[in-house]
From TrEMBL:
The keyword Endoplasmic reticulum does not apply. This is Putative mechanosensitive channel protein. GO terms for cellular component: plasma membrane. Coiled coil: none annotated. It comes from Bordetella trematum. GO terms for molecular function: mechanosensitive monoatomic ion channel activity. PANTHER family: MECHANOSENSITIVE ION CHANNEL PROTEIN 1, MITOCHONDRIAL-RELATED, YNAI-RELATED MECHANOSENSITIVE ION CHANNEL. It comes from the Bacteria. Its main location: membrane. The chain crosses the membrane at residues 7-25, 45-62, 83-102, 108-127. The gene is ynaI_2.
Length: 303
């Protein structure tokens, strides 16, 4: 454990020790140093401070544990750490108020139920975003640095997960802020989990002047030679399958590996260039230029 983390745990531990000692020996302390004061009031104050001290200490310990685990896995959302700390201090506050006022925690919550209901109705939209943010922080469907997609147009790298919103940076540099309640209602695609590498695909049509076996081999070699070697395992090789046989030619589907989502456009571009070079070097006709397969007529509406 680093010195900064030890220092971060030192002060909460010292405060816990001091408040517990004061609470335990408050009677002797008052008899010696503050004989005219009320020992009961001081006992309650010291107990309330000990609640906050323990909440502070446990929150720091939880943060240190999550940070240590994040080094071995993906980065833990800041929202989850803040949620744990806020929950601990909320429990400490309820317990401290109950102790100072001489009431139980249940009595305090019941007496403030009407106020909570009014506030909840007034900020229901904000509350929906916060609750959705809490669910995202607990379930962690994505984390900081992940490439995610919410629909056909909303894709990018997660830069921040807040209580109300999630912020992403799109591939073209656009900064987008999405409400957490909206995210929770959409289908999510995480391109970085459980690993950064994923498979892309594209379809190519070749004419009948090349056999299917030779066409598959040509496309396989073009895809294999154009795929990046860095960031991929040796067994992550492309696959080529014939998926349609028609008059204009045979349709092939090529599945290739991408090291990470940010490389998807470059990988697709490199594979298309390699296929184009291989087709031209082989002297193959493009299906729509083959006189034996004229293009289908285009139906235009009369104006």
């Amino acid at each position: 454990m680093s010195n900064s983390k030890i220092a971060g745990l030192l002060w909460p531990a010292v405060l816990c020790t001091v408040t517990v000692l004061v609470y335990t020996f408050h009677a002797d302390l008052f008899r010696r140093f503050l004989p005219g004061w009320s020992p009961e009031a001081f006992r309650r104050v010291s107990a309330a401070l000990s609640f906050y001290a323990f909440a502070w200490l446990v929150g720091r310990m939880a943060t240190a544990t999550l940070t240590r685990r994040a080094r071995r896995k993906r980065k833990t959302p800041r929202l989850l750490r803040e949620l744990i700390t806020a929950s601990l201090f909320a429990v400490a506050t309820v317990a401290a108020i109950g102790l100072l006022l001489g009431q139980t925690a249940g009595g305090i919550i019941a007496s403030s139920g009407l106020i909570i209901a009014i506030l909840g109705f007034a900020i229901r939209n904000v509350l929906a975003d916060v609750l959705a943010g809490i669910a995202i922080g607990v379930e962690a469907p994505y984390r900081i640095g992940d490439w995610v997609g919410f629909d056909a147009t909303t894709r990018g790298r997660v830069t921040e997960i807040g209580w109300r919103t999630t912020r992403i940076l799109t591939p073209n540099g656009t900064y987008m802020i999405l409400p957490n309640s909206q995210i929770s209602r959409q289908m999510l695609t995480n391109y970085s989990a459980p690993r950064k590498q994923y498979q892309g695909d594209l379809e190519i049509v070749l004419g009948h002047d090349i056999s299917i076996a030779e066409g598959k081999l040509l496309l396989y070699e073009a895809a294999l030679n154009s795929m990046p070697k860095a960031g991929l395992d040796p067994d992550q090789t492309p696959r080529v399958r014939a998926i349609a046989y028609a008059a204009e030619g045979v349709t092939y589907r090529i599945k290739y590996w991408v090291p990470q989502f940010s490389d998807s456009t470059d990988c697709r571009d490199a594979i298309l260039i390699a296929i184009d070079e291989a087709v031209r070097a082989r002297g193959l006709r493009l299906p729509w230029l083959d006189p034996r397969c004229p293009p289908a007529p285009v139906n235009a509406e009369k104006t």
